[in-house]
Write a structure and sequence with these properties.
Strand order of the largest sheet: 4-3-2-5-6
Distance between the termini: 64 Å
Largest sheet: 5 strands, mixed
Structural class: alpha/beta
Number of helices: 13
CATH class of the domain at 139-291: Alpha Beta
Length: about 375
């Protein structure tokens, strides 16, 4: 948008160049406008009044949200179950209840108008990170990620240790334990118990277990147990801190939950009670953004296909009721087919999917 004073100066320079013999079209191009714009400025008092767009009266669109709808959005977003959630999680959860109020962007606009559009909850806004080498999972039980993290105690300098295994495809926590000391025997017991619980012994194809280069996860006893179970170990690259991003992200989610004690855990039983509640919430209540806002347990059990299809139908019905509010297609609720651990190239994923399809055809 060009201000009035700049317009007047520009027109004087164009007219001066034109009077000196320059072609009007070329003089306008040098100034950065077209001849038609110059003509409109002269014919419509554009050199006297200036740009009228900021003062224009724009009628409210017929399909705009009513005041009652805005109040309902605000009331729903401030319900206790939604108070710490962003609109991208609120809208899919409502759709699972066959309720559609407005789109995520409408929720964002209403919350912004009331000063409630800041990052909700205790966590900070995510920062982008670089992605290195890969494993590809197209169903549960193909790729597991595991790690250990520190849980603070109320006594300064004392820690509890959370060992956790995550299924890459479904994001479900398939195994976890909390102990008062870091020991490879705890990792051995966790791997064995998780493999039995997930029925690995009955599968022809064993999972890949990816972890970092910590001494506990690379201990000889751990490698022996993995070999006995038929599980293939995978490790992060040296001096690369984000090769196990899925588990690190889960640990951040855990430690920024409102239930996580800021002053630390009183004892081991207190830490294990918190771990039990968190794992249940994460697996059965948490709508994960990486799997189309279904819970990890729903995706692990294969229920996400029906849920996403029902959610898609809810959106189609909402568009039929008020088509003026939809400028194109409804939101994409197609299921995520493949999940990659630190994808380096999209070609890797394509090759894996083609190889899987060939295997299924042969079978």
């Amino acid at each position: 948008m060009i201000g009035l004073e700049d317009r007047q100066t520009m027109v004087r320079h164009i007219e001066s160049a034109h009077a000196a013999g320059a072609r009007l079209r070329l003089a306008c191009e040098v100034a950065g406008i077209t001849v038609r714009t110059l003509q409109r400025w002269k014919a419509c008092d554009g050199l006297v009044i200036g740009d009228r767009r900021p003062c224009a009266e724009r009628p409210t669109p017929s399909h705009a949200l009513s005041e009652q709808e805005r109040e309902r959005i605000l009331a729903v977003a401030n319900e206790p179950r939604f108070a710490a959630l962003p609109p991208v999680r609120i809208v899919p959860m409502l759709a699972d209840e066959h309720v559609y109020i407005a789109s995520e962007s409408s929720f964002q606009r209403v919350l912004r108008a009331h000063g409630q559009n800041r990052h909700r909850g205790r966590s900070r806004a995510p920062a982008p990170s670089r992605a290195p080498t890969t494993h590809v999972a197209t169903e549960p039980g193909q790729v597991w990620c595991w790690d250990m993290t520190y849980l603070p105690a109320q006594v300064q300098g004392r820690w509890f240790y959370l060992y956790l295994i995550l299924d890459l495809y479904s994001r479900k926590i398939v195994g976890w334990e909390i102990h008062d000391r870091d020991d490879a025997e705890h990792a051995v017991h966790l791997v064995k118990r998780t493999a039995l619980a997930e029925g690995i012994h009955a599968r022809l194809s064993k999972p890949v277990l990816h972890g970092d280069n910590g001494s506990t996860l690379k201990a000889t006893t751990v490698l022996a147990m993995l070999n006995w179970l038929g599980v293939k170990p995978s490790y992060s690259r040296p001096r690369v801190s984000d090769d196990n991003a899925f588990v690190e992200s889960l640990f951040k989610t855990a430690k920024y939950r409102p239930e996580f004690p800021a002053s630390g855990f009183a004892d081991l039983e207190d830490a294990r009670a918190w771990g039990h509640d968190f794992v249940h919430w994460y697996n059965f209540e948490h709508r994960h953004s990486g799997i189309r806002y279904v819970t990890p347990a729903q995706r692990h059990a294969g229920e996400d296909l029906a849920i996403l299809q029902a959610r898609h139908q809810t959106y189609l019905l909402a568009r039929e009721r008020n088509p003026a509010r939809w400028s194109g297609r409804t939101r994409d609720w197609s299921p995520i087919v493949a999940v990659t651990l630190n994808p380096e190239r999209e070609a890797v994923v394509g090759d894996h999917l083609r190889a899987r399809d060939k295997t299924q055809l042969v079978a």
